[in-house]
Amino acid sequence: xxxxxxxxxxxxxxxxxxxxxxxxxxxxxxxxxxxxxxxxxxxxxxxxxxxxxxxxxxxxxxxxxxxxxxxxxxxxxxxxxxxxxxxxxxxxxxxxxxxxxxxxxxxxxxxxxxxxxxxxxxxxxxxxxxxxxxxxxxxxxxxxxxxxxxxxxxxxxxxxxxxxxxxxxxxxxxxxxxxxxxxxxxxxxxxxxxxxxxxxxxxxxxxxxxxxxxxxxxxxxxxxxxxxxxxxxxxxxxxxxxxxxxxxxxxxxxxxxxxxxxxxxxxxxxxxxxxxxxxxxxxxxxxxxxxxxxxxxxxxxxxxxxxxxxxxxxxxxxxxxxxxxxxxxxxxxxxxxxxxxxxxxxxxxxxxxxxxxxxxxxxxxxxxxxxxxxxxxxxxxxxxxx
Length: 386
Hints:
Elements: E1 5-10, H1 14-17, H2 28-35, H3 41-44, H4 48-66, H5 72-78, H6 80-88, E2 103-107, H7 112-127, E3 131-135, H8 145-167, E4 173-177, H9 183-196, E5 199-203, E6 210-213, H10 227-233, E7 241-242, E8 254-257, E9 260-263, H11 265-279, E10 289-291, H12 293-299, H13 306-325, E11 339-341, E12 351-354, E13 361-367, E14 370-377, H14 379-384
Parallel strand pairs: 1-2, 1-4, 2-3, 4-5, 10-14
Antiparallel strand pairs: 5-6, 7-9, 8-9, 11-12, 12-13, 13-14
Helix pairs in contact: 4-7, 5-6, 8-11, 10-13, 11-13
């Protein structure tokens, strides 16, 4: 492999269930594991029999994976997730230790069994010298449509940050390992991978043969995207937009309640993929933000590259959404916006916020329910010219 890998693997619970001996273990084991599959760590504390079953299966799993005489084929048969990862390393003669420059993220459900399984896989990879960690979207499980949808929303936000960050580093090859995980999550992850244009890995049923789906040239119809409205709906402030203002937007991209709408899971996915195109262009006109001439001049300065434009407009969307949500009351802004007032001197009435990923700043004045943006640039420039 010429480039280091960023491998994102969906994790299921087959690693545990594969250890159930149908001939000697009680029949109820499989039933209880299935019945409590969506139970959280807190939920399962009330069920001693389930704790006992999972603990026994975990010990069997660890013996099979970490035993002195463990064979690669035996490990791959036990874990779908590791089966896919071993398949990726076939060029290294299946020696995972050769991938020490790679990064592995394990996507686990917000369930007791999901966490147990993911931690076993994580420990195995770390013992091989690989960098591995777990990401668990809050509420991600199949206990209900609402819970699953909320978990997918969190997953999309996280993947957006991870994938865009590593795609900016051309040295990394991004791969989705979808051999493990439950079917509903695999379905979403497969589409997400295609939209982001990453390689997807599966393994043929009952085999060790890897099948790779290469990056697909999927085209997005940008004409249906309304960048200001999409940015507001995707914000942390969770602004809802009047349905009448989204006439050209397909139903599949929004979720409607009454006469208001927000982005659906697919809408958020499409927006995450295409927002770079809109954010690196001209200043978008967000509600309750007034751009002073000095601010516009700063934005158009030659030193403001595409990365700075993207990061700024992403924050402007959050600020605008917060102005709408709190009716112009900047004292109620989320601390993540880094919004504060200059102290001392002649600029007591001027506020500012900074863009976390660049450190650049914006000075502003709240007036008549709007936020007037004055200057934008590096720390010293804005502080000396608020």
